[in-house]
Structures are given as C-alpha cells and as structure tokens.
Amino acid sequence: MDVTTNYYICGLPIADSSRIKELPVQYITGGNAIGLQKKFTFRKLFDRSLQKMQESSLMNKLRSNWLSAGTSMCGRKTKFTASLSDVAAIFILLMGGAAFSCLLLLLLLLLEYAVG
Prior knowledge:
By secondary structure, the protein is an all-alpha fold.
C-alpha cells in the first residue's frame, strides 16, 4: 500500500479498517478529476458530454495522447540530485537576473527624470 492509502486507513474506525483487504494487483493506477461548483447550471450538460466522450472511446484516445507522455518521461523512479556546483550556478543566475532588473529600473528612472 502507498503512504496515502495507509494514512487513510489509519483514520478509519477499527471495524471498517479491519474489513479492508489488499488486492494482489493494482487496478487503478491513477485518475483525473474536474471540480465544479455545487449549483453549476451546466452540470447536466457537462456530465452528458463526458458520458458521450466515454462511450465513443474519445476519452481513451485523449488519455493515451495527453496523459501517457507525462508518465513515460517522468516516472516515479526518476531521480535528480543537484551537486554544489548546480546550486551555485542557479544562485549566480538568480543574482545576475536581480542585478539586471535593478539596472533596468535605474535606467528607466534616469530616462523618466531626463524626459520629465
């Protein structure tokens, strides 16, 4: 079980949590959700449209085109460790950007002073 599931089970009453069984395979690997307001006027239309997309397998096509790219590029085992030189380079870039912004601000103030 993952950490989230374990945390959820720990918060359940003992009678409920003792009835939970772990399945040998994982059936649901992820999901998507869209949040709508409680009294959303177009909720029925939205639900019907989603149902039609599901029935016509358009949802599967969208899922394979849009969501599979994200999981293949960055899986759960993707790991990046930053060395001290990486952190120093980022710090130098950050300070360079701040200095450039200050120079632009000074230039704009001088230009405004000269014109006005």
